[in-house]
Amino acid sequence: MLELRAHCECCGRGLAPDAVDAMICSFECTFCAACVDGRLHGVCPNCGGGFERRPRRPAALLGQYPASTARRPLVCADT
């Protein structure tokens, strides 16, 4: 099951579970679409892979399977 990470690992912007601009790589590294397109040029700085839009979990299931609230260190804040 996807972790649904709470923020962009590049700029730190919050990404709600239903965010339409959340992007993930195959390792679930999570970034906003603006960082993926602009700063990262479509390449994950953690694993070197590409990105896909993160699926949205149905609201009815978020109570049983909540999104993560953990904050991860930013990987490209100075890029």
Question: What do these coordinates show?
Answer:
Strand 1 (22-24) and strand 2 (30-32) form a beta hairpin. The longest helix has 5 residues, at 33-37. The chain has two helices and three strands; from the N terminus they run E-E-H-E-H. With 79 residues, it is largely without helices or strands. The mean pLDDT is 93. A three-stranded antiparallel sheet has the order 2-1-3. The protein has a single domain (1-68), classed as Herpes Virus-1. It starts with 21 loop residues before the first strand and ends in a 17-residue tail after the last helix.
Topology:
Layout (H helix, E strand, L loop, with lengths): L21 E3 L5 E3 H5 L14 E2 L5 H4 L17
Antiparallel strand pairs: 1-2, 1-3
Structure in a nutshell:
This protein is low in regular secondary structure.
Number of domains: 1
CATH architecture: 2-Layer Sandwich
Shape: globular
Strand content: 5-15%
CA-atom Rg in angstroms: 12 Å
Mean pLDDT: 93
- Determine the fraction of residues in helical runs and give it as a percent range: 10-25%
Annotated CATH topology: Herpes Virus-1
Order of helices and strands: EEHEH
SS field, number of helical segments? 2
